[in-house]
Amino acid sequence: MTQPTSPSPVKRERTPWKLMTLALVLMAVDFVLGPYIQFPVFFVVPVMLAAWHYNVAWAVLIALAMAGVRFLYHWYWNFPLEVMPATLNTVMRALVLILVAWATARTALLVRRLRKRVEELEAQLPVCKGCGVIRGEDGAWVEVGSLPAKASLHCPTCEEKQYGLYHQSG
Ligand SMILES: [Zn+2]
Question: How many angstroms is it from 7 CA to the middle of ligand 1?
């Protein structure tokens, strides 16, 4: 018996080079702006994107790298470094980023599952190829907005349009 295949995100096995580049750019900007600007709030951007498009491991890796490098900047800045608050800030920043990574990855997983479920359900609907109406349980055709037509069906109106002419001319 085969395992049911789970929805496979397109980019899961790849390395997020673009996001790592973005992280490097953000770290460079942070370095230029110096210790008094709270630029690290933007560190959430590559972390969220990595968690959404890749996986939580990449997101956590990027989060830890950014928080860690930020910590090292203090020595280059000649900032009056007090090791204890700087360490605490780094730990808090890393924890918040990891939390964001986890929540984003979880939301992405839920969205992928729901999207797959909706596609499965839509595939089972009796949808008219011509105008997109669906046939209800009572046999009546109802409009429900735009749905992809996957069944080989025509509602009576579209059948008339499609084949009525052939019946007349043929
Ligand atoms: Zn129709």
Answer: 32
Report CA-CA distances (Å) from 92 to 23, 30, 68, 97: 19, 18, 11, 9
Model confidence, pTM: 0.70
How is the chain split into domains, by residue range?
Answer: 17-120, 134-169
CA 165 / ligand 1 centre spacing (Å): 16
pLDDT digits (tens, 9 = 90+) for 11-52: 556 899 999 999 999 999 999 999 889 999 999 999 999 999
CA of 137 relative to ligand 1 center, distance in Å: 17
CA of 69 to the centre of ligand 1 (A): 61
Please tell me the distance between residue 56's alpha carbon and the centre of ligand 1 in angstroms.
45
